Amino acid sequence: MSRIEEKLAELGLELPPDCPPRASFVKYRMWNGLLILSGQICEWNGEPRWFGPVSDDTDMDEMQAAARMCALNLLFCAREALGSLDRIETVLRLGGFVNAVPGYGQGPKVIDGASDLFIQLFGEAGRHARTAVCVSSLPVNAAVEVDAMMAVS
User: What's the whole-model pTM score?
Assistant: First the structure.
């Protein structure tokens, strides 16, 4: 078990058993020490768990949990690509998308659920550049989707 997976266990979290792509794309691409991860929605083993649109009436803790689940899916794909999560040197960038009603202004706070997990797991190396936007729809009406770029050894 990698050091990062041990930290996940200490947080009471685990990686999903699988993370199947939903369309014609690959889960990741490697290039010159970069791992580019395709967007992952808030699903577990292919089963969506949270749905949009998100509004001011939606529980923020639940939406941050949805973003955290996206991050767990990203980590699953990273482990598949690298063999070990310990090869991740730094998280460079996250892109976060929240399926929200027009005018919803808390998208960045939702995506903190993913960002905070990477910081907990990787410390300063988990701090990253980020985009967090609200959109009118996501695949299977999922509430949240997150993609990532990482530098790896």
Answer: 0.96
